[in-house]
UniProtKB/TrEMBL annotation:
It comes from Candidatus Methylobacter oryzae. This is 1-acyl-sn-glycerol-3-phosphate acyltransferase. CDD domains: LPLAT_AGPAT-like. Residues 90-198 form the Phospholipid/glycerol acyltransferase domain. It comes from the Bacteria. The keyword Transmembrane applies. GO terms for molecular function: acyltransferase activity. Pathway: Lipid metabolism. The lineage of its organism: Bacteria, Pseudomonadati, Pseudomonadota, Gammaproteobacteria, Methylococcales. It holds the Pfam family Acyltransferase.
Amino acid sequence: MVQKVAAKLSYGWRLFATAISFFSFGVGGLLLWIAVFPLLSLLPGNSRQKISRGQKTVSYSFYFFIGLMHRLGVMTYDIDGLEKLNRPGQLIIANHPTLVDIVFLISRIKQASCIVKAGLFHNPFMRGPILNAGYISNGDPEQMIADCVAWLRSGGSMIIFPEGTRSIPGQPYHFQRGAAAIALQANAIVTPVTLTCTPSTLTKAERWYQIPERRFHLTMHVGDDIQLHEFTRISPKSVAVRRFTHYQQDYFTQQRELYQHDGK
């Protein structure tokens, strides 16, 4: 009886804490837009320096958000291989199991761009961070690829989810070709990051308030760089892109099976 009451109290607190966390995220994004970024824009510097400041600001704010969720007892996490990140011209490709994946990644990468849905440019809670950090819209696929390639070639780093959206639990991965096309055109450093969430939560099929019976644990494993030379010498380029896309898909499928086996 006591255990059941304790479990219900714990669940109730985590539901309340989850609400606090996402409310804070929305308010924080709005405050960045109307208060922080206007002040940062007054500082001297060219457009690249302003974008750099914007990305660092978003990274720090996301670091605070993850810390808040951790301190409130919503989640725990661990990171393996962080030292392999934060390199110029680096393309980070990752699987996408939960809603907070991009937040978690950016919280650990001080300066990185990413691809965002075109509709978010009009979201008052996200507009400020997106514009000031120089994030790239997916509205025009060809322009998106060109912008990503230019950013990587200039020495910037990027985070891309090759799936293009959150994974569906229990379903095979279906990667899009954009990440492969960007990597091969830019001849970038490509570093895979495997994210796992136990128990599964904040998936594409769940609302934020549909929390698991216990706090979730997010693991980030940074793999070794993927060598592109065996793909860059393939002709035509469309075949190289297709093969590299299949390679990524197979890699993350193997990683998921490995972690599922280890978790049993």
